[in-house]
């Protein structure tokens, strides 16, 4: 097994955010985790890269239990699984290349970091990665001057700078319009296919999970309630994952609709879909 998750549980007080979750992956794949707000998707990703600690269970990568790594080994693991967030988490006033070079932080000395000294080779590599993502010409600009889709690609470039084995993406397209969402998902898909890196993406929307992922995991109330291929993810199954009754409409979980709506409209639609 490349990745095996065994009975992992995380509680916050009496709330089981992730409840006895298990699944295994024989080889690298692009995985989508779906489920409504509060299902435990982010908590799960954060346990994989040790931003938060599981209470019980094991997560093994290549046979090695990563939940008990300490100090340098833990940092090495965190650099093996790069994280991408909904809000990009770039340094807005800093130029794009420097933002990408931040991906090498965990292997540079404090001195080099303090004085913003980067080896020439790293700078070239950063530009190459930006080029691969189609945004090399943005390199000298401040991150804040870029569109959301471009900023998310900068965040992906920063992740690639770590040469990670896994990319963990927490709602990578939730703040993007449909066109940018597509560009970002295609970039992640290509990185998976061309480099063989595993991608685990939390996604709010069914259609995105179906279109880009090899396997979809549905979470509800901290538990896995679906684990299968996009084909197996029927409307009935989706209804179960999202905890909706017969009035469930797929449109309410569609990227295109969601992105065009204001948060208030989206809340209304989600409420309608789950009443
Ligand atoms: N730091 C925390 N302290 C207390 N409770 C938390 C914390 N983080 C998450 N939770 C709780 O754990 C549960 C799962 O939250 P999580 O953020 O993992 O859900 P999610 O599926 O990512 O939701 P969303 O789609 O809104 O991002 C929720 O009930 C949430 O309130
Ligand atoms: Mg979340």
UniProtKB/TrEMBL annotation:
**An example Gene Ontology CC term for this record:** membrane
The cross-references to InterPro entries, in alphabetical order and at most eight, read: AAA+_ATPase, ABC_transporter-like_ATP-bd, ABC_transporter-like_CS, ABC_transpr_PhnC, MetN_ABC_transporter-like, P-loop_NTPase
* Record GO terms (molecular function): ABC-type phosphonate transporter activity; ATP binding; ATP hydrolysis activity
Q: What class of enzyme is it?
A: hydrolase
Which keywords appear in this protein's UniProt record, sorted alphabetically? ATP-binding, Cell inner membrane, Cell membrane, Hydrolase, Membrane, Nucleotide-binding, Translocase, Transport
| E.C. no | 3.6.3.27
Q: Sorted alphabetically, which SUPFAM superfamilies does this protein's record hold?
A: P-loop containing nucleoside triphosphate hydrolases
- Looking at the record, the residues that make up the ABC transporter domain are 3-246
The protein's matches in NCBIfam families, at most eight in alphabetical order, are given as: ABC_phnC
Supply the name of the protein.
Phosphate-import ATP-binding protein PhnC
The source organism is Actibacterium lipolyticum
Q: What is the lineage of its organism?
A: Bacteria, Pseudomonadati, Pseudomonadota, Alphaproteobacteria, Rhodobacterales
């Amino acid at each position: 097994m490349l990745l095996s998750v065994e009975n992992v549980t995380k509680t916050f007080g009496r709330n089981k955010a992730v409840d006895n979750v298990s699944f295994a992956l024989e080889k690298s794949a692009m995985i989508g985790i779906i489920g409504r707000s509060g299902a435990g998707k982010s908590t799960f990703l954060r346990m994989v890269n040790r931003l938060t600690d599981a209470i019980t269970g094991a997560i093994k990568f290549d046979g090695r239990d990563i939940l008990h790594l300490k100090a340098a080994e833990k940092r090495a693991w965190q650099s093996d699984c790069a994280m991408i967030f909904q809000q990009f988490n770039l340094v807005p006033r800093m130029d794009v290349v420097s933002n990408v070079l931040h991906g090498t932080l965990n292997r540079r000395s404090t001195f080099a970091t303090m004085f913003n000294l980067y080896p020439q080779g790293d700078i070239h590599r950063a530009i190459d990665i930006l080029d691969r993502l189609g945004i090399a010409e943005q390199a000298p600009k401040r991150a804040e001057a870029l569109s959301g889709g471009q900023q998310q690609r900068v965040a992906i470039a920063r992740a690639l700078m770590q040469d990670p084995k896994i990319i963990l993406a927490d709602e990578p397209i939730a703040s993007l319009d449909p066109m940018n969402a597509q560009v970002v998902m295609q970039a992640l898909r290509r990185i998976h296919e061309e480099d063989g890196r595993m991608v685990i993406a939390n996604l709010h929307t069914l259609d995105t999970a179906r279109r880009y992922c090899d396997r979809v995991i549905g979470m509800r109330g901290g538990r896995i309630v679906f684990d299968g291929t996009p084909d197996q993810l029927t409307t009935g199954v989706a209804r179960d994952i999202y905890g909706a009754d017969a009035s469930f409409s797929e449109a309410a979980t569609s990227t295109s609709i969601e992105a065009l709506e204001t948060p208030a409209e989206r809340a209304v639609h989600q409420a309608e879909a789950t009443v």
